[in-house]
Amino acid sequence: MHTIWKGSISFGLVNIPIKLHAATENKDISLRSLHKECHSPIRYEKVCPVCEKTVEKEEIVRAYEYTKGKFVVLDEEDLENLRKDNQDKAVEIIDFVKIEEIDPIYFDRSYYMSPNEGGVKAYSLLRKALDESNKVGLAKIIIRAKEQMAVIRVVENTLLMETIHYPDEVRPAADVPNVPAEENVTAREVETAMLLIEQLTTTFEPGKYRDDYRSALMELIEAKKTGEDVVSAKEREPAATNVTDLMAALQASIDKTKPDGKAAEAGEKKAVRKATRRKPAVRKKEA
Description:
Layout lengths: L4 E7 L2 E9 L24 E2 L4 E2 L7 E6 L2 E5 L1 H10 L5 E7 L9 E9 L4 H14 L2 E8 L2 E10 L2 E7 L22 H14 L11 H14 L20 H12 L4 H15 L11
Antiparallel strand pairs: 1-2, 2-8, 3-4, 5-6, 7-9, 8-11, 9-10, 10-11
Helix pairs in contact: 3-5, 5-6
């Protein structure tokens, strides 16, 4: 597994030399842009709109736009000195908390941690302490010139570090538009929705989920490579876009998710109830 960062992590006076390894990988299929006429890859060049010429890498400087069209230019030397000043704070556990206290919205990226030379015992100590205390460590780390908060926890006998957002990086939920302030659902609708949730509740098994779009795209690519005829995938049933009867939609969802045989039985019972609610036929008056 490729090492992306080397350093050390400390809690109290304990110092652990470690390596970081990416715990996840992006498997999105990358598509190139080609010229339609000759199928040559399109190049994207950095061009100055004022000088009207291509700008080389060594001619580019970094800057902060503090207002529209106004910039503060930052020298690479200044940035490098700033990184060095904070390098000794690379990974430092500052608190221990329960992971249940951290909302998932804060989590960002995951990295496996392995001990570097001389760090095996201290690594094992931290792992054991976290495991038995049912706590996670809150740490600060500098990765790619950015200081980040991170959570350190145990996953399958391995220390895992997950970077988390700072509170000011998480937008307030109160800013989301058009969220209804009051509940206008009935008790029966809630009970039916709870029944549907109960029927769909299961144990989380990551292996049973897959990226259907990526699989279909790869099948399409392979078919085109071999010159096979491309067959369109079977279309899914269109989702309801304007549900006028919420209870009917809930009931239909429940019937659909019932085990084999029960859905039909439920349909029969529903038909019987419907029949018994019919009004008696009106008798004709005698002449």
